[in-house]
Amino acid sequence: xxxxxxxxxxxxxxxxxxxxxxxxxxxxxxxxxxxxxxxxxxxxxxxxxxxxxxxxxxxxxxxxxxxxxxxxxxxxxxxxxxxxxxxxxxxxxxxxxxxxxxxxxxxxxxxxxxxxxxxxxxxxxxxxxxxx
Length: 132
Prior knowledge:
alpha+beta
Protein backbone atom coordinates (compact mmCIF):
# COMPACT_ATOMS: atom_id res chain seq x y z
CA UNK A 1 0.00 0.00 0.00
CA UNK A 2 1.32 3.40 -0.97
CA UNK A 3 -0.45 6.60 0.00
CA UNK A 4 0.15 9.84 -1.89
CA UNK A 5 -2.37 11.91 0.09
CA UNK A 6 -1.27 14.51 2.63
CA UNK A 7 -2.17 13.43 6.18
CA UNK A 8 -4.18 15.69 8.47
CA UNK A 9 -2.25 14.19 11.39
CA UNK A 10 0.80 11.94 11.64
CA UNK A 11 2.02 10.58 14.98
CA UNK A 12 3.70 7.63 16.66
CA UNK A 13 1.94 5.21 19.01
CA UNK A 14 3.58 5.50 22.44
CA UNK A 15 3.32 3.35 25.59
CA UNK A 16 0.49 5.49 27.04
CA UNK A 17 -1.56 4.75 23.88
CA UNK A 18 -1.65 0.98 24.48
CA UNK A 19 -4.55 -1.16 25.65
CA UNK A 20 -4.15 -3.88 28.33
CA UNK A 21 -3.38 -6.44 25.60
CA UNK A 22 -0.38 -4.54 24.20
CA UNK A 23 -2.06 -3.14 21.08
CA UNK A 24 -3.05 0.43 20.33
CA UNK A 25 -6.17 1.50 22.22
CA UNK A 26 -9.15 2.10 19.93
CA UNK A 27 -10.07 5.22 21.89
CA UNK A 28 -6.67 6.74 21.06
CA UNK A 29 -7.28 6.03 17.37
CA UNK A 30 -10.71 7.66 17.58
CA UNK A 31 -9.27 10.75 19.28
CA UNK A 32 -6.58 11.15 16.61
CA UNK A 33 -9.27 10.79 13.93
CA UNK A 34 -11.40 13.44 15.69
CA UNK A 35 -8.44 15.82 15.86
CA UNK A 36 -7.79 15.38 12.14
CA UNK A 37 -11.45 15.82 11.24
CA UNK A 38 -11.67 18.94 13.42
CA UNK A 39 -8.61 20.42 11.74
CA UNK A 40 -10.15 19.87 8.30
CA UNK A 41 -13.55 21.23 9.40
CA UNK A 42 -12.01 24.42 10.83
CA UNK A 43 -9.81 24.95 7.78
CA UNK A 44 -12.57 24.37 5.24
CA UNK A 45 -15.19 26.14 7.37
CA UNK A 46 -12.80 29.05 7.94
CA UNK A 47 -13.56 29.26 11.64
CA UNK A 48 -14.97 27.48 14.63
CA UNK A 49 -16.42 24.03 13.99
CA UNK A 50 -17.66 21.66 16.71
CA UNK A 51 -18.30 17.95 16.44
CA UNK A 52 -21.95 16.94 16.85
CA UNK A 53 -21.73 13.27 15.94
CA UNK A 54 -19.24 10.50 15.31
CA UNK A 55 -20.46 7.32 13.60
CA UNK A 56 -19.63 4.28 11.52
CA UNK A 57 -16.35 3.37 13.21
CA UNK A 58 -14.56 0.26 12.02
CA UNK A 59 -11.22 -1.12 13.12
CA UNK A 60 -10.07 -3.53 10.39
CA UNK A 61 -6.39 -3.53 11.35
CA UNK A 62 -4.12 -3.26 14.36
CA UNK A 63 -1.13 -1.15 15.40
CA UNK A 64 1.75 -1.88 17.75
CA UNK A 65 3.89 0.27 19.98
CA UNK A 66 6.05 2.58 17.89
CA UNK A 67 3.99 2.26 14.71
CA UNK A 68 3.22 5.47 12.82
CA UNK A 69 -0.39 6.62 12.38
CA UNK A 70 -1.49 8.83 9.49
CA UNK A 71 -5.02 10.27 9.46
CA UNK A 72 -6.64 11.28 6.17
CA UNK A 73 -10.01 12.91 5.56
CA UNK A 74 -12.33 14.42 3.03
CA UNK A 75 -15.60 16.30 3.02
CA UNK A 76 -18.33 13.75 2.32
CA UNK A 77 -21.37 16.05 2.52
CA UNK A 78 -22.48 19.54 3.45
CA UNK A 79 -25.68 20.67 5.11
CA UNK A 80 -27.06 24.10 5.90
CA UNK A 81 -24.66 24.58 8.81
CA UNK A 82 -22.74 21.31 8.85
CA UNK A 83 -19.84 19.45 7.27
CA UNK A 84 -19.68 15.65 7.25
CA UNK A 85 -16.14 14.32 7.08
CA UNK A 86 -15.03 10.78 6.29
CA UNK A 87 -11.80 9.84 8.06
CA UNK A 88 -9.39 6.99 7.42
CA UNK A 89 -6.51 5.98 9.72
CA UNK A 90 -3.52 4.17 8.23
CA UNK A 91 -0.85 2.48 10.35
CA UNK A 92 2.72 2.01 9.13
CA UNK A 93 4.98 -0.57 10.73
CA UNK A 94 7.79 1.28 12.46
CA UNK A 95 10.54 -0.75 10.82
CA UNK A 96 9.22 -0.94 7.25
CA UNK A 97 6.99 0.62 4.64
CA UNK A 98 4.19 -1.91 5.35
CA UNK A 99 0.89 -0.05 5.84
CA UNK A 100 -2.59 -1.18 6.86
CA UNK A 101 -5.92 0.57 7.29
CA UNK A 102 -6.49 0.46 11.05
CA UNK A 103 -9.67 2.51 11.43
CA UNK A 104 -12.28 4.61 9.67
CA UNK A 105 -15.26 6.67 10.71
CA UNK A 106 -17.47 9.65 9.98
CA UNK A 107 -17.64 12.93 11.89
CA UNK A 108 -20.25 15.67 11.56
CA UNK A 109 -19.34 19.24 12.51
CA UNK A 110 -21.48 22.37 12.83
CA UNK A 111 -19.90 25.68 11.90
CA UNK A 112 -20.28 28.42 14.53
CA UNK A 113 -20.11 32.19 14.36
CA UNK A 114 -18.44 34.54 16.86
CA UNK A 115 -21.45 34.15 19.19
CA UNK A 116 -21.30 30.34 19.05
CA UNK A 117 -24.47 30.21 16.97
CA UNK A 118 -24.65 27.94 13.91
CA UNK A 119 -23.65 29.72 10.71
CA UNK A 120 -24.41 28.80 7.13
CA UNK A 121 -21.99 26.69 5.13
CA UNK A 122 -22.98 28.85 2.16
CA UNK A 123 -21.12 31.72 3.85
CA UNK A 124 -17.88 29.76 3.49
CA UNK A 125 -15.81 30.52 0.40
CA UNK A 126 -14.01 27.74 -1.55
CA UNK A 127 -15.53 24.74 0.19
CA UNK A 128 -13.37 22.09 -1.48
CA UNK A 129 -9.69 22.19 -0.50
CA UNK A 130 -9.08 19.03 -2.50
CA UNK A 131 -8.31 15.58 -1.18
CA UNK A 132 -6.40 15.78 2.08
